């Protein structure tokens, strides 16, 4: 993280707490969460299931208001503003009544931003991720991996500054999952997007992220903030998994999570 | 190799032939049952097993229908009923979608109005008809309101249920892409509710017809409902006229009426 210390963080969370309310009482989901994200970083958040990982993402996506604490979004030039946030949900939710092209341009349509350059940008994304020939097909004609790539293009079309990924590969079978997470990891690294990935797959977290935040069980607080440095031969996901440090990182994460409960 | 291919083709042809035979059997049997029914009906009334005065017979119905067709009155009555049914159906469709949209947009409102909708839906609508006459007079207005009253509450309930069952995550997706509540409705709820809307349409056409006939029973001088009630009332005073009217209207409606509509 040494290189990014000089720059102000693009996103800063200070003492975030959130609880769910029901007639039976109050359940504290997040307790005093603070961390910073710098531009271009890829952060993975892991934690025991049901600990509030998705709640945290919903707060970052402004779908939920934190009960306590503040979130600050910052521009690289230091001014505070509302950045565009891209949120990839657990499943692709492509609409069957729209073609692939109409699906990936949905965000532009909703924001009335279907300008010539934005549509041209979508076309380059489609070509880059091998979906251009399928743009007039229905989503059901695509494979699981292609659907996930289409969902990513739909998110990227709005040129978000921060990408939030909520277990975006969990609905895929194992082989597709490895391939797609590799693809999407490369896409994000190449475009130097800032990304926050929530996952329960430890090897996915280590192989994709620059930094792993380990959350405790409910109420979630940050147990450990673990920078990941892998010596790898190439950019591929398999190279990451074959890196000599991979096993020790895996063990650290495993220990931290097994100590819960 | 070549042999194999011809064999595969014959198997396919055999399958197609089987399907054709199956289809033909079904449509022939359907028609056959109808013919048998007509023959038994005709025979029963001719041979005096049933009183043809009360039960009529296919030949008498044909004659009466022909006479009424010839003087144009039958088509006029059918046309009136069709127009009224269509109008109340369209109103039910528009009002139903609008009310369902209002309920969908506010959880509070839908919770408040739920018991009222259930009560209004289970209310016997034919009981409303005499009141409608008092309120709206005898005329087309009453008949169309009667047609609407039968179909509207059920369609609001089923449309609202359909709107409400849309996958919540798809609405979250619209919000994460920066869409508004209106976008949620037009881009997600409406397109994914199309099957519900179509099934509501199918049910509503039938219900609107029932409502219109009820209205015509009480408040019309034209239309199939009027024809039925006229036939059965005149029957009490002048049996000779009834012979024609009653026979024409009742069986015609029950046999042919519903088929005239999609």
Description:
The complex is a heterodimer of chains A (261) and B (262). Chain A is an alpha/beta fold and 261 residues long. Chain A has helices at residues 53-60, 100-104, 106-110, 116-128, 144-156, 174-190, 202-208, 237-241, 246-258; strands spanning 11-22, 25-37, 42-46, 68-73, 85-88, 162-166, 194-198, 211-215, 222-227. In chain A, α5 (144-156) packs parallel to α6 and α7 (202-208) crosses α9 (246-258). Chain A is globular, with a radius of gyration of 19 Å. In chain A, 39% of the residues are buried. Mean pLDDT of chain A is 82; it is low at 1-5. Chain B is mostly helical. Helix content of chain B is 88%, strand content 0%. Chain B contains twelve helices and no strands. Chain B has helices spanning 2-46, 52-55, 58-70, 73-105, 107-122, 125-136, 140-164, 168-176, 181-192, 194-219, 224-237, 239-260. The longest helix of chain B has 45 residues, at 2-46.
């Amino acid at each position: 993280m040494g290189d990014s210390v000089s720059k102000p963080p693009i996103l800063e969370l200070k003492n975030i707490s959130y609880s769910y309310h029901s007639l039976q009482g109050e359940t504290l989901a997040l307790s005093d969460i603070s961390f910073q994200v710098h531009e271009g970083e890829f952060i993975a958040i892991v934690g025991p299931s049901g600990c509030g990982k998705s709640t945290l993402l919903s707060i970052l996506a402004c779908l939920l208001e934190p009960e306590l604490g503040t979130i600050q979004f910052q521009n690289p030039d230091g001014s505070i503003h509302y950045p565009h946030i891209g949120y990839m949900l657990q499943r692709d939710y492509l609409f069957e009544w729209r073609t692939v092209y109409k699906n990936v341009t949905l965000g532009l349509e909703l924001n009335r931003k279907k300008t010539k350059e934005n549509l041209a940008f979508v076309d380059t994304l489609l070509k880059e991720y091998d979906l251009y020939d399928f743009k007039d097909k229905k989503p059901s004609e695509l494979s699981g991996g292609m659907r996930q790539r289409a969902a990513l293009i739909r998110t990227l079309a709005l040129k978000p500054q921060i990408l939030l990924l909520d277990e975006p590969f969990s609905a895929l079978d194992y082989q597709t999952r490895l391939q797609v997470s590799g693809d999407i990891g490369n896409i994000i690294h190449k475009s130097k997007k800032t990304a926050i990935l929530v996952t329960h797959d430890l090897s996915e977290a280590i192989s994709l992220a620059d930094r792993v935040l380990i959350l405790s069980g409910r109420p979630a607080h940050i147990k450990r903030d673990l920078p990941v440095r892998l010596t790898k031969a190439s950019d591929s996901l398999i190279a990451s998994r074959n890196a000599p440090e991979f096993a020790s990182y895996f063990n650290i994460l495993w220990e931290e999570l097994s100590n819960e409960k | 190799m070549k042999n194999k291919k011809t064999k595969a083709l014959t198997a396919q042809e055999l399958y197609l032939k089987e399907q054709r035979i199956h289809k033909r059997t079904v449509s022939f049997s359907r028609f056959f049952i109808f013919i048998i029914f007509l023959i038994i009906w005709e025979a029963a009334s001719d041979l005096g097993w049933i009183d043809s005065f009360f039960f009529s017979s296919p030949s008498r119905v044909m004659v009466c229908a022909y006479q009424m067709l010839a003087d144009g009155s039958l088509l006029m009555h059918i046309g009136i009923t069709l127009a009224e049914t269509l109008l109340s159906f369209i109103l039910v469709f528009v009002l139903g979608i609008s009310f369902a949209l209002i309920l969908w947009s506010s959880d509070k409102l839908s919770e408040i109005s739920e018991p009222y909708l259930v009560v209004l839906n289970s209310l016997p609508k034919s009981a409303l008809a005499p009141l409608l006459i008092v309120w709206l007079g005898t005329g087309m207005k009453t008949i169309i309101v009667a047609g609407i009253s039968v179909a509207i509450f059920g369609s609001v309930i089923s449309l609202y249920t359909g709107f409400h069952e849309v996958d919540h995550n798809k609405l979250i997706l619209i919000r994460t892409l920066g869409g508004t509540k209106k976008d949620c409705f037009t881009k997600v709820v409406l397109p994914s509710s199309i099957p519900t809307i179509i099934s509501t349409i199918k049910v509503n056409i039938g219900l609107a017809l029932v409502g219109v006939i009820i209205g015509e029973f009480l408040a019309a001088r034209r239309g199939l409902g009027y024809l039925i009630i006229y036939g059965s009332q005149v029957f009490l005073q002048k049996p000779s006229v009834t012979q024609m009217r009653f026979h024409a209207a009742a069986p015609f409606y029950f046999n042919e009426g519903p088929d005239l509509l999609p």
